[in-house]
Every structure is written in C-alpha cells, then in structure tokens.
Amino acid sequence: MLTIAVYVEHASGSVRRASLEALGAAAATGHEVVAILAGDGAEGAASGCAGAARAVCIAGSLASPDALARATADAARQIGARAFVASATSTGKDLAPRVAALLGSALLADCTALSATGDVLRATRPTLAGKVLIQATSSGPVFCATLRRNVFGAASGAGPAGISKAAGVNDFKAMLQSIASKTGSKLDVSEAPIVVAGGRGMKGPEHFALLEELAAAFGSAAVGASRAVVDAGWRPHGEQVGQTGKTVAPQLYVAVGISGAIQHLAGMKTSKVIVAINKDPEAPIFKHADYGIVGDAFEVLPVLTQAVKALRAQ
Ligand SMILES: Cc1cc2nc3c(=O)[nH]c(=O)nc-3n(C[C@H](O)[C@H](O)[C@H](O)COP(=O)(O)OP(=O)(O)OC[C@H]3O[C@@H](n4cnc5c(N)ncnc54)[C@H](O)[C@@H]3O)c2cc1C
Question: Which of 15, 116, 200, 207 would staple 228 via disulfide (CB 3.0–4.6 Å)?
Fold first, then answer.
C-alpha cells in the first residue's frame, strides 16, 4: 500500500472544500492518505480531514512560501509518502512545484482524474487549452500532482485516527508579511456552485448589473467574466474564467455574450450544465452548451431573472 500525502488548506478551523476534494480523490485510490496541515489553527482543523488515516501538523506559521515548501517536503519524507497531492488553488499552485522539486520529482499540474493500478498512480491532465487529455504517471521517486477543484467528490465521514506534529523551518529567504483579503461576502468564482459569466456582448461595465441581478436571484452564485471584459477593465481579474484566469466547474455555468473561444472553454467546459445566451446562432459556445438561448442578452436576462425569482419564491 502506498502512502499519499495530501496538503490540506484550512480557514477558521475548517478544512477548505478544495482540500476535501483532494482528500476524496486520494482516498478513492484505496491507498493510505496522510493529511499535512500548516499554519495557525492547523491542529483544530486536522480532525476535519475526512478520508485521511492520519494528520501531520507543521509547527510554526506560514510566513514564508519557501519555508512552508521545505517543511512540507520534510513531512512527506518522514511519513514515507510515495505520492504528494494538493488542490490546484493559488496556494497549491505555489506550493506543489516547490515540494515536487525538493522531492526530486516532476509535477503533474491541474489534473482532472486520479487512479491507481496496484502501486502505480495515474493522473489525467488537460493540455493545449483542454484540447488533449494526457494520461500520465511519474517516473520520479514521489508522484506529485495538483488536482483541479470542483472536479472530484469531497471526502466525507470520519477524520484521522491520529494527529502528530512535524517541525517547521525557521530559516527562509522570503517572508510573507500580510495578506490583504478582499472584504465583503461575495462568493469566489472558483468556489460558487453557480457562475453567471459575461463577455464582450455585455457592451460595457454598467450592464454587468444585469448579471449581478441574475446571480442574486439564484442565491449562491458568482459573476465571472471573459478575458476580453477583464482586459477592457470592466471587471477585476479575479473574476476571469479561462486559460489565463480561473478554472471553474460549477453545477451551472451561464455564459452571456461570450463567444466560446478555446481559451475561455479551457476554464469552464467541465461545468456540469452550461447555458449559453448569445445573439449569434453560430457562436462556438453553443457547441459546448447543454442549453442555448439565441437572443439579445438585454432582452433575455431580465426575463430569466424574473423566472428564477418566481421559481425560487414557490
Ligand atoms: C494566450 C491567451 C490566453 C487567453 N486566456 C483567456 C482566458 O483565460 N479567458 C478568456 O475568456 N479568454 C482568454 N483569451 C482570449 C480569447 O481568445 C477570446 O478573445 C475571449 O475569450 C473573447 O471574449 P468574449 O467571448 O467576451 O468576446 P467576443 O469573442 O468578442 O464575443 C462576444 C460575443 O458576444 C455576442 N454578443 C454581442 N452582443 C450580444 C448581445 N447583445 N446579446 C447576446 N450576445 C451578444 C457575440 O455574438 C459574440 O459571440 C486568451 C487568449 C490568448 C491568446
């Protein structure tokens, strides 16, 4: 049996959903899963690591990405991990390549499937903006991968049977001094179960109010944007979906006035249900949509918002 180390992110004493998905993916291979946590509150959150047989909490703070990577790699070595997995969040994308390098291995980034045949782990990796799916394994000493969020089922059930401590690293080259997090209760586009995204067809930033209204009518929804919109300065980069933005896979993705360029599709085509609203019946987005509405967004959106409100009021 292999030991798979999973780096687990947590906030306010709870394991983040993306990490529960990584734990779920690792546990589904049938191998032993050991959670690695770091930072303030790690010990409190460790008990929530469903799917993990054990948890290891790294002492000290998260002050330095370089120190965190070394401490995580040390912990993975100590538990005899033959695999290291993290979610492809901003933290995971920063940490995992460093850990892989320290473990003398390559990294399979942003994988959408993980499986095991005996002791051989395999991952599926979309590449060329999602046109090609690569099935990959690792010839390095440790199989290292980041897993795309919103693709794997979250681990549930009992937490780890044991929680132990690992030493932190105190000499580092760079130090994080503060994290400026945005205020407000807006859902992040990569975490929302419903995304209402707008493209250049929305004609201007002021018209995104129509998308905000539809998102509010749905309840748990976030507004996303194409790169054309972000480049024009209509919406912040944090909302951009696509190859150079965020990867999302919500239950419902509503693309409004978005043509469906391959770089946009790369970030949303694994969404469970895709609805496209576009006035051009030939728009490429319709080839990937489960439901398509050919029409002017400015006529369709108010009607759709009213219909969603009416349904939810029932
Ligand atoms: C290296 C690279 C990386 C990239 N990364 C990304 C990325 O991460 N994300 C991303 O989105 N793009 C990315 N792009 C850009 C991408 O190629 C497209 O240019 C971009 O996605 C187009 O955005 P859009 O669909 O909003 O605009 P357009 O392609 O201009 O499409 C606008 C659409 O709106 C429709 N429309 C117009 N008026 C209305 C109306 N009144 N009602 C309904 N529909 C209407 C039109 O029919 C059209 O289909 C990248 C490009 C490159 C080269």
Answer: 200
